[in-house]
Amino acid sequence: MSNASANPNNNDEPPAAKRPRLSDVKNTNENEPNGTLSTMESSVRGGASDLHKRLYNLLLCVVCREVPHPEESYQCKHGHIMCEDCTNHILADAMITDKDAHCPSCRVFINCHDLEQNLVVRQALWELPIECASCAVELSVAKELPKHLKFDCELRVVRCKYQCLGCSWEGTLKDRELSHDAACGFPQRNGKDILKFLQLASDKVRLSNVPLMKLHRELSASRINFRNVKMSRIPNRDSISSELLREFVLLESETITAFEEQWVLRLHLTTAGERRALSCQLLLLSTPRGALMVDHMIRMPQGVGSVKQQHDIRLQLYRQLFDANNHGEGRRELPLEGPQSLYRLFAMSEIQLRLWMFLHY
Protein backbone atom coordinates (compact mmCIF):
# COMPACT_ATOMS: atom_id res chain seq x y z
CA MET A 1 0.00 0.00 0.00
CA SER A 2 1.46 3.35 -0.98
CA ASN A 3 1.99 6.26 1.36
CA ALA A 4 -0.64 8.21 -0.53
CA SER A 5 -3.29 5.64 0.20
CA ALA A 6 -2.19 5.40 3.84
CA ASN A 7 -2.78 9.14 4.23
CA PRO A 8 -5.91 10.07 2.25
CA ASN A 9 -5.70 13.68 3.44
CA ASN A 10 -2.19 14.06 2.10
CA ASN A 11 -1.75 17.02 -0.24
CA ASP A 12 0.94 19.42 -1.30
CA GLU A 13 0.14 21.84 1.59
CA PRO A 14 2.17 20.98 4.73
CA PRO A 15 0.22 20.65 7.98
CA ALA A 16 -0.34 23.80 10.02
CA ALA A 17 2.35 22.88 12.52
CA LYS A 18 4.87 22.63 9.68
CA ARG A 19 3.98 25.80 7.80
CA PRO A 20 6.72 28.46 7.84
CA ARG A 21 6.35 31.20 10.41
CA LEU A 22 6.85 34.85 9.61
CA SER A 23 10.26 34.77 11.29
CA ASP A 24 11.28 31.80 9.11
CA VAL A 25 10.53 33.54 5.81
CA LYS A 26 13.75 34.41 3.98
CA ASN A 27 14.12 37.34 1.68
CA THR A 28 14.37 36.07 -1.87
CA ASN A 29 15.32 39.44 -3.35
CA GLU A 30 18.97 40.06 -2.50
CA ASN A 31 18.83 43.57 -3.90
CA GLU A 32 16.14 44.53 -1.39
CA PRO A 33 17.48 43.42 2.01
CA ASN A 34 14.26 44.33 3.75
CA GLY A 35 12.03 43.28 0.84
CA THR A 36 8.77 41.46 1.52
CA LEU A 37 9.61 40.71 5.13
CA SER A 38 10.09 44.41 5.89
CA THR A 39 6.66 45.16 4.44
CA MET A 40 5.04 42.41 6.47
CA GLU A 41 6.77 43.47 9.68
CA SER A 42 5.73 47.07 9.08
CA SER A 43 2.14 45.92 8.67
CA VAL A 44 2.32 43.92 11.89
CA ARG A 45 3.82 46.84 13.81
CA GLY A 46 1.17 49.19 12.41
CA GLY A 47 -1.58 46.80 13.44
CA ALA A 48 -0.10 46.48 16.93
CA SER A 49 0.03 50.25 17.26
CA ASP A 50 -3.59 50.57 16.17
CA LEU A 51 -4.59 47.79 18.57
CA HIS A 52 -2.77 49.57 21.40
CA LYS A 53 -4.72 52.77 20.74
CA ARG A 54 -8.05 50.94 20.69
CA LEU A 55 -7.30 49.05 23.91
CA TYR A 56 -6.09 52.28 25.50
CA ASN A 57 -9.41 53.99 24.70
CA LEU A 58 -11.35 51.06 26.18
CA LEU A 59 -9.58 51.54 29.52
CA LEU A 60 -10.38 55.24 29.87
CA CYS A 61 -12.90 56.43 32.45
CA VAL A 62 -16.23 56.88 30.66
CA VAL A 63 -16.83 60.14 32.56
CA CYS A 64 -13.60 62.16 32.52
CA ARG A 65 -11.84 60.22 29.72
CA GLU A 66 -8.68 59.97 31.79
CA VAL A 67 -6.67 56.83 32.57
CA PRO A 68 -7.70 55.64 36.06
CA HIS A 69 -5.18 54.64 38.67
CA PRO A 70 -4.91 50.84 38.48
CA GLU A 71 -6.04 50.44 42.08
CA GLU A 72 -8.85 53.00 41.77
CA SER A 73 -10.89 51.84 38.80
CA TYR A 74 -14.40 50.40 39.03
CA GLN A 75 -16.94 48.98 36.62
CA CYS A 76 -20.71 48.86 36.41
CA LYS A 77 -22.62 45.60 35.79
CA HIS A 78 -22.02 45.97 32.07
CA GLY A 79 -18.28 46.56 32.45
CA HIS A 80 -17.97 50.31 31.82
CA ILE A 81 -14.86 51.68 33.55
CA MET A 82 -14.99 54.65 35.94
CA CYS A 83 -12.22 56.20 38.03
CA GLU A 84 -12.66 56.54 41.79
CA ASP A 85 -13.25 60.31 41.80
CA CYS A 86 -15.95 60.16 39.13
CA THR A 87 -17.60 57.20 40.87
CA ASN A 88 -17.74 59.12 44.14
CA HIS A 89 -19.19 62.17 42.39
CA ILE A 90 -21.96 60.11 40.79
CA LEU A 91 -22.89 58.29 44.01
CA ALA A 92 -22.64 61.42 46.17
CA ASP A 93 -24.73 63.57 43.82
CA ALA A 94 -27.40 60.86 43.76
CA MET A 95 -27.46 60.72 47.55
CA ILE A 96 -27.55 64.50 47.94
CA THR A 97 -30.38 64.92 45.43
CA ASP A 98 -32.18 61.83 46.76
CA LYS A 99 -32.14 60.09 43.37
CA ASP A 100 -30.79 56.82 41.98
CA ALA A 101 -27.24 56.66 40.64
CA HIS A 102 -26.74 55.41 37.08
CA CYS A 103 -23.78 54.52 34.91
CA PRO A 104 -23.31 57.52 32.58
CA SER A 105 -22.64 55.19 29.65
CA CYS A 106 -25.39 52.53 29.77
CA ARG A 107 -27.66 54.06 32.48
CA VAL A 108 -27.71 50.85 34.53
CA PHE A 109 -28.37 51.39 38.27
CA ILE A 110 -25.19 51.46 40.37
CA ASN A 111 -24.43 51.51 44.08
CA CYS A 112 -21.46 50.85 46.34
CA HIS A 113 -22.20 47.15 46.62
CA ASP A 114 -22.42 46.49 42.86
CA LEU A 115 -19.27 48.35 41.84
CA GLU A 116 -16.29 46.04 41.56
CA GLN A 117 -12.74 46.09 40.31
CA ASN A 118 -11.83 44.04 37.25
CA LEU A 119 -8.60 42.10 37.72
CA VAL A 120 -7.73 42.10 34.02
CA VAL A 121 -8.39 45.85 33.73
CA ARG A 122 -6.26 46.54 36.80
CA GLN A 123 -3.36 44.51 35.45
CA ALA A 124 -3.71 46.09 32.01
CA LEU A 125 -3.61 49.60 33.51
CA TRP A 126 -0.36 48.77 35.30
CA GLU A 127 1.14 47.68 31.95
CA LEU A 128 0.20 50.85 30.05
CA PRO A 129 2.96 53.33 29.19
CA ILE A 130 2.77 56.51 31.21
CA GLU A 131 4.36 59.94 31.19
CA CYS A 132 5.71 61.46 34.38
CA ALA A 133 3.64 64.56 35.09
CA SER A 134 6.69 66.34 36.53
CA CYS A 135 9.52 65.72 34.06
CA ALA A 136 7.55 64.35 31.06
CA VAL A 137 9.74 61.23 30.87
CA GLU A 138 7.95 58.40 29.08
CA LEU A 139 7.88 55.20 31.12
CA SER A 140 7.23 51.89 29.38
CA VAL A 141 4.83 50.67 32.09
CA ALA A 142 2.85 52.50 34.76
CA LYS A 143 4.13 50.28 37.56
CA GLU A 144 7.56 51.91 37.18
CA LEU A 145 6.17 55.35 38.11
CA PRO A 146 6.48 55.11 41.94
CA LYS A 147 10.14 54.09 41.67
CA HIS A 148 10.78 56.84 39.12
CA LEU A 149 9.21 59.53 41.33
CA LYS A 150 11.21 58.40 44.34
CA PHE A 151 14.65 57.89 42.82
CA ASP A 152 14.95 59.12 39.21
CA CYS A 153 12.72 62.13 38.52
CA GLU A 154 14.88 65.25 38.26
CA LEU A 155 11.92 67.52 38.91
CA ARG A 156 10.70 65.89 42.11
CA VAL A 157 10.49 68.28 45.08
CA VAL A 158 13.36 67.96 47.57
CA ARG A 159 14.76 69.88 50.53
CA CYS A 160 18.26 71.25 50.96
CA LYS A 161 20.89 68.76 52.12
CA TYR A 162 21.69 71.17 54.94
CA GLN A 163 18.14 71.38 56.24
CA CYS A 164 19.41 70.08 59.58
CA LEU A 165 21.53 73.23 59.87
CA GLY A 166 18.60 75.55 59.23
CA CYS A 167 18.31 75.94 55.46
CA SER A 168 14.64 76.12 54.50
CA TRP A 169 15.19 75.92 50.71
CA GLU A 170 12.80 73.65 48.82
CA GLY A 171 12.72 73.00 45.10
CA THR A 172 13.37 70.45 42.37
CA LEU A 173 16.28 68.04 42.48
CA LYS A 174 17.61 69.55 39.25
CA ASP A 175 17.65 73.08 40.69
CA ARG A 176 19.34 71.89 43.85
CA GLU A 177 22.14 70.15 41.95
CA LEU A 178 22.65 72.93 39.39
CA SER A 179 22.45 76.00 41.57
CA HIS A 180 21.45 75.74 45.21
CA ASP A 181 24.10 73.32 46.52
CA ALA A 182 26.91 75.62 45.40
CA ALA A 183 25.19 78.79 46.64
CA CYS A 184 23.94 77.48 50.00
CA GLY A 185 25.82 79.22 52.79
CA PHE A 186 24.60 77.08 55.67
CA PRO A 187 27.62 74.73 55.72
CA GLN A 188 29.74 77.78 56.69
CA ARG A 189 27.45 78.93 59.50
CA ASN A 190 29.01 79.35 62.93
CA GLY A 191 27.88 77.63 66.11
CA LYS A 192 25.91 80.66 67.32
CA ASP A 193 23.71 80.73 64.23
CA ILE A 194 23.17 76.98 64.38
CA LEU A 195 22.15 77.29 68.03
CA LYS A 196 19.47 79.84 67.07
CA PHE A 197 18.12 77.46 64.46
CA LEU A 198 17.99 74.61 66.95
CA GLN A 199 16.00 76.84 69.31
CA LEU A 200 13.51 77.65 66.52
CA ALA A 201 13.25 73.96 65.67
CA SER A 202 12.51 73.19 69.31
CA ASP A 203 9.73 75.82 69.34
CA LYS A 204 8.18 74.26 66.22
CA VAL A 205 8.17 70.84 67.87
CA ARG A 206 6.52 72.32 70.94
CA LEU A 207 3.80 73.98 68.82
CA SER A 208 3.24 70.77 66.88
CA ASN A 209 2.56 69.01 70.18
CA VAL A 210 -0.24 71.41 71.11
CA PRO A 211 -2.98 69.22 69.53
CA LEU A 212 -1.54 66.23 71.38
CA MET A 213 -1.63 68.14 74.66
CA LYS A 214 -5.23 69.13 73.98
CA LEU A 215 -6.13 65.53 73.36
CA HIS A 216 -4.39 64.56 76.60
CA ARG A 217 -6.53 67.12 78.40
CA GLU A 218 -9.67 65.65 76.86
CA LEU A 219 -8.65 62.14 77.86
CA SER A 220 -8.36 63.47 81.41
CA ALA A 221 -12.01 64.55 81.34
CA SER A 222 -14.32 63.45 84.10
CA ARG A 223 -16.29 61.20 81.75
CA ILE A 224 -15.74 60.06 78.18
CA ASN A 225 -18.23 58.59 75.76
CA PHE A 226 -17.82 57.50 72.16
CA ARG A 227 -20.20 55.89 69.76
CA ASN A 228 -20.49 55.01 66.09
CA VAL A 229 -23.56 56.72 64.68
CA LYS A 230 -25.41 56.16 61.41
CA MET A 231 -26.49 59.30 59.61
CA SER A 232 -29.73 59.39 57.62
CA ARG A 233 -32.04 62.01 56.14
CA ILE A 234 -34.50 63.62 58.51
CA PRO A 235 -37.87 61.82 58.41
CA ASN A 236 -39.92 65.01 58.05
CA ARG A 237 -38.07 66.28 54.98
CA ASP A 238 -41.43 66.87 53.25
CA SER A 239 -41.86 69.93 55.45
CA ILE A 240 -38.85 71.58 53.80
CA SER A 241 -39.57 73.63 50.70
CA SER A 242 -38.23 72.39 47.35
CA GLU A 243 -36.21 75.60 46.90
CA LEU A 244 -34.47 75.03 50.22
CA LEU A 245 -33.83 71.37 49.42
CA ARG A 246 -31.75 72.40 46.42
CA GLU A 247 -29.43 74.32 48.73
CA PHE A 248 -29.71 72.37 51.95
CA VAL A 249 -29.41 68.70 52.96
CA LEU A 250 -29.88 67.64 56.56
CA LEU A 251 -28.68 64.32 57.96
CA GLU A 252 -29.42 63.21 61.49
CA SER A 253 -28.22 60.41 63.74
CA GLU A 254 -30.33 58.16 65.87
CA THR A 255 -30.81 59.29 69.48
CA ILE A 256 -27.56 59.03 71.46
CA THR A 257 -27.50 58.32 75.19
CA ALA A 258 -24.51 59.81 77.02
CA PHE A 259 -24.01 61.20 80.53
CA GLU A 260 -27.63 60.26 81.41
CA GLU A 261 -28.90 62.64 78.72
CA GLN A 262 -30.31 62.29 75.18
CA TRP A 263 -28.42 63.78 72.23
CA VAL A 264 -28.53 63.91 68.46
CA LEU A 265 -25.85 64.74 65.87
CA ARG A 266 -26.78 66.60 62.71
CA LEU A 267 -24.90 67.25 59.48
CA HIS A 268 -25.85 70.20 57.29
CA LEU A 269 -24.78 70.30 53.64
CA THR A 270 -25.19 73.69 52.01
CA THR A 271 -24.65 74.55 48.36
CA ALA A 272 -23.67 78.00 47.13
CA GLY A 273 -23.01 77.94 43.39
CA GLU A 274 -20.31 75.35 42.77
CA ARG A 275 -19.21 75.24 46.40
CA ARG A 276 -20.55 72.76 48.91
CA ALA A 277 -19.86 73.06 52.64
CA LEU A 278 -20.52 70.57 55.41
CA SER A 279 -21.21 71.58 59.00
CA CYS A 280 -22.07 69.66 62.15
CA GLN A 281 -24.25 70.33 65.18
CA LEU A 282 -24.58 68.48 68.48
CA LEU A 283 -27.97 69.00 70.12
CA LEU A 284 -29.21 68.09 73.60
CA LEU A 285 -32.71 66.62 73.44
CA SER A 286 -33.40 66.20 77.17
CA THR A 287 -33.43 68.87 79.87
CA PRO A 288 -30.30 68.59 82.04
CA ARG A 289 -30.35 68.89 85.82
CA GLY A 290 -27.48 71.35 85.65
CA ALA A 291 -24.89 72.87 83.32
CA LEU A 292 -22.83 70.47 81.20
CA MET A 293 -19.47 71.47 79.72
CA VAL A 294 -19.00 69.07 76.82
CA ASP A 295 -16.26 68.84 74.21
CA HIS A 296 -16.90 66.69 71.16
CA MET A 297 -15.16 65.68 67.96
CA ILE A 298 -16.09 63.64 64.91
CA ARG A 299 -13.88 61.03 63.28
CA MET A 300 -14.21 58.18 60.79
CA PRO A 301 -14.56 54.79 62.51
CA GLN A 302 -11.82 52.24 61.93
CA GLY A 303 -12.78 49.63 59.38
CA VAL A 304 -15.43 51.84 57.77
CA GLY A 305 -14.76 53.25 54.32
CA SER A 306 -11.48 53.33 52.42
CA VAL A 307 -7.99 54.12 53.68
CA LYS A 308 -8.33 57.64 52.30
CA GLN A 309 -11.54 58.19 54.26
CA GLN A 310 -9.78 57.50 57.54
CA HIS A 311 -7.97 60.84 57.07
CA ASP A 312 -10.76 62.82 55.39
CA ILE A 313 -11.97 64.46 58.62
CA ARG A 314 -9.32 66.52 60.39
CA LEU A 315 -9.05 66.53 64.16
CA GLN A 316 -11.12 69.38 65.59
CA LEU A 317 -12.53 69.77 69.11
CA TYR A 318 -15.72 71.74 69.74
CA ARG A 319 -16.54 73.00 73.24
CA GLN A 320 -20.14 73.76 74.20
CA LEU A 321 -22.00 74.63 77.39
CA PHE A 322 -25.41 72.95 77.66
CA ASP A 323 -28.07 73.84 80.23
CA ALA A 324 -31.83 74.20 80.51
CA ASN A 325 -31.78 77.32 78.33
CA ASN A 326 -29.16 76.24 75.81
CA HIS A 327 -29.64 72.89 74.07
CA GLY A 328 -27.09 73.51 71.33
CA GLU A 329 -25.25 76.32 69.62
CA GLY A 330 -25.10 77.05 65.92
CA ARG A 331 -23.52 74.82 63.32
CA ARG A 332 -19.75 74.37 63.15
CA GLU A 333 -17.90 73.65 59.93
CA LEU A 334 -16.70 70.06 59.72
CA PRO A 335 -12.99 70.26 58.76
CA LEU A 336 -12.38 68.10 55.68
CA GLU A 337 -9.09 67.49 53.92
CA GLY A 338 -10.43 68.62 50.55
CA PRO A 339 -13.40 68.67 48.14
CA GLN A 340 -13.03 64.98 47.32
CA SER A 341 -13.42 64.15 51.02
CA LEU A 342 -17.01 65.40 50.93
CA TYR A 343 -17.84 63.28 47.88
CA ARG A 344 -16.22 60.19 49.40
CA LEU A 345 -18.34 60.67 52.52
CA PHE A 346 -21.64 61.06 50.65
CA ALA A 347 -20.78 58.22 48.26
CA MET A 348 -20.97 55.74 51.15
CA SER A 349 -23.98 53.44 51.02
CA GLU A 350 -24.45 54.17 54.72
CA ILE A 351 -22.75 57.18 56.31
CA GLN A 352 -21.18 56.19 59.62
CA LEU A 353 -19.23 58.49 61.92
CA ARG A 354 -17.66 58.13 65.34
CA LEU A 355 -18.71 60.77 67.86
CA TRP A 356 -16.43 61.40 70.83
CA MET A 357 -17.84 63.32 73.83
CA PHE A 358 -15.87 64.56 76.83
CA LEU A 359 -17.70 65.81 79.92
CA HIS A 360 -15.93 68.35 82.15
CA TYR A 361 -17.33 69.16 85.60
Rg, rounded, reads 32 Å
Q: How is the biggest beta sheet arranged?
A: 9 strands, antiparallel
Count of alpha and pi helical runs: 10
Poorly predicted segments: 1-11, 13-32
| Share of residues in helices | 25-40%
Helix and strand composition category: alpha+beta
The arrangement of helices and strands along the chain is HHEEHHEEHEEHHHEHEEEEEEEHE
Shape call = flat
Could you walk me through the main structural features you see in this protein, from its secondary elements to its overall organization?
- This protein has 361 residues and is of the alpha+beta class.
- The chain contains 10 helices and 15 strands.
- It has helices at residues 3-6, 35-58, 84-96, 119-127, 145-152, 173-183, 191-208, 210-219, 242-245, 339-346; strands spanning 73-75, 81-83, 130-131, 138-139, 157-159, 170-172, 223-233, 248-253, 256-258, 261-272, 275-284, 292-299, 318-322, 332-333, 351-360.
- The strands form 4 sheets. Strands 7, 8, 9, 10, 11, 12, 13, 14 and 15 form a 9-stranded antiparallel sheet that branches. Strands 1-2 form a two-stranded antiparallel sheet. A two-stranded antiparallel sheet has the order 3-4.
- Helix 3 (84-96) packs across helix 10.
- It starts with a helix and ends with a strand.
